[in-house]
Amino acid sequence: MRAIRVASAALLGVGALALSAPAAVASGGGNITPFGFSVMPSTIAAGGQVTLQLDRDSGGCTGSATVSSGVFDTITIPGNRSSATAVVDWDAKPGAVYKVTFSCNGVSGSTDLTIATGRTTPTTQPLYPDRGVHAGEGGSVAGFDLKEIGLGAALIAGSVGAAYHFSRRRTGEDGA
């Protein structure tokens, strides 16, 4: 009977550990950089304005970064900022997918920007202010933090150890 309890506790612990693996590790390669990046929105009409977001919280990009694409001019994001805006060329082909490359500290990563059908009116105001709170950045894959992974692994190991301890503990009914 005890073997069943120990085996089920061990399987629960291994299952929890396997399911808590971060997406960056589970992706198996691909476009991994020491810094996170994104283009918002990822689908835009020709002439529209996109925000180029750079995640500097993880420390992977400390200096200025350059963002280039065949659909807008090369943009430089200074070291003290996390985002910039770019206006998509009016002659961008609707339905086409363009590669947007972020480069910082000698490391490059890219993502796709899709051109939607239709056109937008040119904007003179930026969509997002230059400074302000960084709301909504949680849950991004780019925040690969070894301290958090270590703490999670320690919590899982502790729960497996506690389950093993309680399954091995004798009660007064065992007659021992």
From TrEMBL:
Extent of the signal sequence: 1-26
Statement: the UniProt record of this protein carries the keyword Signal: yes
Keywords of the record: Signal
Keyword Signal assigned: yes
Protein name, entry field: Lipoprotein
